[in-house]
């Protein structure tokens, strides 16, 4: 542009030295200073000599005879002599941060050369700043893109300038369909006017804003969101808003379930406490009604009523026993148990847990092997399965409790087969109820999984059963089809004969 032999551009670094960003090839090649073999893109120079005057004064300089100039510090050894110099500062917001330097034009530099270099420095600064802003953004883009939170940048006209991957995924949308559109268009007029706009405006006034809202998304439906708006300030005030949103739907659900299960835990304890007190009252009811009956004599006409009282109090006794078993918090105490006995014993109480329309059938193998398990756990397991079966048959049906021996000696063929017990006792609880689809079936053992309404299901029934079965080295196989009922097969290892003898 000016016909200069040499030229360089650079800026002052944080250590106060001059970093050359670019230097002309002829200029570089002509420099034969010791140590100048280093990469030419990063040469640190102390701020001295004529050229440094541009940086100090923040003004362009044109010098015809540099060696006689007052600023001259000479040139380093090996550096070609400087016959003419033209320099212009790089300025941003009034601050000089670097310069463009030219040297050794064949003739004198002119004022139009000076003007050209001053203009060049202005457009150079603009380009440099834009480039740096973009690369800064690129650097953050990775973080923004990979964030699981929904992030959007909105301008003063409520238009989306930037959205991240999570945002697009939630909206099932594409970047080009969102960028440039207004928040009102994307969220709908109703949501924009009633919930979003006032928050955005507050943020444009410079406040950090956070609030919770519900928003409907395609496919995902209504979701709970935690929203945060942060203002981005420029010299002229807030120019943009960064919106960071977190989908807290699942978290809220979990919290609700946790609350529900804590409530159930409390109810369980309460029931246990009441059952305990009730049991003592029952003892006196039983004792005194026995006395009355004895004193009445067999042919007393009131005997019939006394008999009804006896039945009722037996039921009450069975019920409290089960309640106590259920709410018991003691550590497990496995014993050799006859499952048939536990089931028969609990039958009356179990019948009461299910509707009148449900017929209860038992098929218990009289030669059933014994199992080693905490009897309380058996009761709880059977009770949970029976309650579920009852729930699945709101308009009646048949509930079957079955026990059988099962020799699985040839069943396992994997590597650990040798170590596994061979003989199992199988407990089958089946109903003719509504059944389950595959999706439901794949989740039933998860704690808190329930398809029953709030206040009805805890989702802890089957996870407890699963825990008990696993703890006792058994396994559980559910079989179900929608509309065709459900069967739970529970396998518990049978106690080996020899151990049984030692135990008893
Ligand atoms: P809850 O009974 O509190 O819902 P459970 O862990 O006992 O929790 O059961 C989890 C879910 O499994 C139930 O909500 C229901 O959808 C399903 N389920 C369990 N047993 C049956 C059954 N016998 N028939 C149909 N669905 C069942
Ligand atoms: Mg249940």
Question: How are the secondary structure elements laid out?
Answer:
Layout: E1 4-12, E2 18-23, H1 25-30, E3 44-45, H2 50-57, E4 61-63, E5 85-92, E6 95-105, H3 111-146, E7 150-155, E8 160-163, H4 165-171, H5 175-178, H6 183-187, H7 189-204, E9 209-217, E10 221-234, E11 237-247, H8 249-296, H9 303-327, E12 335-337, H10 339-353, E13 358-364, E14 371-373, H11 375-392, E15 397-407, E16 423-431, H12 438-441, H13 461-471, E17 475-480, E18 486-493, H14 497-503
Parallel strand pairs: 13-15
Antiparallel strand pairs: 1-2, 1-6, 2-3, 4-5, 5-6, 7-8, 7-11, 9-10, 10-11, 12-14, 15-16, 16-18, 17-18
The structure holds adenosine-5'-diphosphate and magnesium ion.
